[in-house]
Design brief:
The protein has five helices and 23 strands. With 446 residues, it is of the alpha+beta class. Strands 2-3-17-16-15-14-7-6-5-4 form a ten-stranded antiparallel beta sheet, with helices on one face. Strands 1-18-19-20 form a four-stranded antiparallel beta sheet, with helices on one face. A three-stranded antiparallel beta sheet has the order 8-13-12, with no helix packed on it. Helix 1 packs antiparallel against helix 4.
């Protein structure tokens, strides 16, 4: 250190202490936000049975208690139709029905609009023939699945509201639409529908759309059955039926994908020229030609009919002519009945409604599920600062045959928004639970 200089004379001045940095700075002005940003939170979810377990038990227990004595005391004949004398002079059990039918003819196919829709291709082979039922082999558990219908109309119903397509298999019952879809388009002879594009008013006119492209058209396939155009009661033995059907080789088109081509000049020929055909005996065993049934199908100019005729015969008191079969039927039918009740009870008990708040975005997802299958999304609800959870009461008044009136009330939830339509929520949820999941408040006067 040089004499006459202090230690501090060798220290370089710091940049933080330079005069420039000591000058007063302009204060930073923070503009207030014009809108409140949504703060992400943990996802939350609610689930509830569509039919409460206690309600199901209230219906199940009386069915079991009242049916069990009746079941044990019955002498089962195994006939759920009517007894009729056929051409063989014996009493048979006959079940079936006849429906009005409307036909559309295209290249190789006949489309039938009746109680249920069918697309049929048929071919006569030797003494028998083949009936091929075309169907769209889509994955119906997938929310993006495609469906095919005979008739669809925009906003043709009101049970689920506007901006929807209402579809049916029977053109005569267009006012009783069986299926509801958010998007439909017409190609060739079918309406193709899906929910994968969401609900939108622009879907009202899809006349120029072909979204059901090759990947959808290729889902069509055949289910082919061998048939015999002989009356089973007309002195034709069961073994003869089997011989005829064994000689039928399914044609190549049974293993291809159906193609529907409109051809207005095509000759309009009904399946098997309108004559009845019979399907292979069901439940037939070589050691008992008296057990089983044969199905009869016929398409005429104005109707389609089907019948199931028993191969086994009955006495006039309704008992089977073979006692061993009667005892077998008496065991099988109660088992089938109670098995059906148990399966139905299980299916209804698993039907649930779900409401989920995504958390990462201010959105509710409403879905349904049953039989422990993947959920099917019914709607998504976008929430904002104006959204409110509202509890309201609906009143229903009814009058019985004696003129006595009764009034019932029920409570429901909906979400209201400013400037857009309200959203109904599924029933069965508690208000306090919905507040926790949605994060919404109730109106001050609610």
């Amino acid at each position: 250190m040089t004499k006459g200089k202090s230690f501090w004379d060798d220290i370089e001045p710091s940049s933080e202490t330079t005069p420039e940095h000591k000058l007063p700075q302009e204060p930073e002005i923070i503009e207030p936000s014009s809108e409140t940003d949504y703060v992400a939170r943990a996802p939350k979810e609610l689930s509830v049975r569509v039919i409460p377990f206690g309600v199901l038990l209230m219906f199940l227990l009386p069915i079991l208690l009242f049916s069990l004595p009746f079941t044990l005391s019955q002498d089962y004949t195994g006939c759920f139709g009517s007894f009729e004398y056929m051409e063989d002079g014996e009493l048979h059990c006959v079940e079936g029905d006849t429906f009005q039918a409307d036909y559309t003819f295209s290249e190789n196919h006949v489309t039938i609009s009746s109680y249920f829709g069918e697309d049929i291709r048929w071919e006569q082979i030797g003494e028998g023939g083949v009936l091929g039922y075309a169907y769209l082999d889509s994955n119906y558990d997938d929310i993006n699945a495609w469906y095919a219908y005979n008739l669809c109309e925009w906003e043709a119903g009101n049970e689920l509201g506007d901006e929807l397509w209402y579809c049916t298999s029977d053109k005569e019952k267009r006012s009783e639409s069986e299926y509801v879809q958010s998007y439909c388009e017409f190609q060739d002879v079918h309406w193709y529908c899906t929910d994968s594009f969401g609900q939108n008013a622009s879907h009202s006119d899809t006349s120029n759309e072909t979204r059901a492209g090759v990947e959808v058209q290729s889902l069509w396939t055949y289910y082919c059955e061998k048939v015999v155009p002989f009356n089973p009661s007309d002195n034709t033995s069961i073994n003869r039926f089997i011989e005829i059907e064994a000689g039928i080789v399914l044609p190549a088109w049974c293993f291809t994908s159906p193609v529907f081509t409109v051809n207005e000049s095509i000759e309009q020929i009904l399946p098997f020229n309108g004559t009845a055909v019979y399907l292979y005996p069901m439940y037939f065993y070589e050691d008992s030609t008296e057990y089983g049934s044969i199905e009869r199908i016929q398409y005429t100019s104005s109707s389609m009919s089907w019948q199931t005729v028993s191969i086994h015969t009955y006495n006039e008191d309704g008992s089977l002519t073979v006692e061993i079969e009667q005892s077998l039927t008496g065991i099988v039918l109660p088992i089938l009945f109670y098995s059906t009740v148990v399966v139905l009870f299980y299916a209804l008990s698993t039907k649930k409604s779900h409401i989920e708040h995504l958390g990462t975005e201010n959105t509710l997802v409403v879905s349904k599920s049953w039989l422990n299958k993947p959920r099917k999304i019914k709607k998504t609800i976008s929430l904002d600062s104006s959204s409110l959870l509202e509890l309201y009461t609906s009143t229903h008044t009814s009058t019985d045959s004696d003129g006595h009136g009764s009034t019932t009330t029920s409570h429901h939830h909906k979400i209201t928004h400013s400037g857009r339509p309200e959203d109904q929520l599924p029933n069965g949820f508690k208000t306090s639970e919905l507040i926790k999941v949605t994060g919404l408040e109730r109106p001050r006067d609610d």
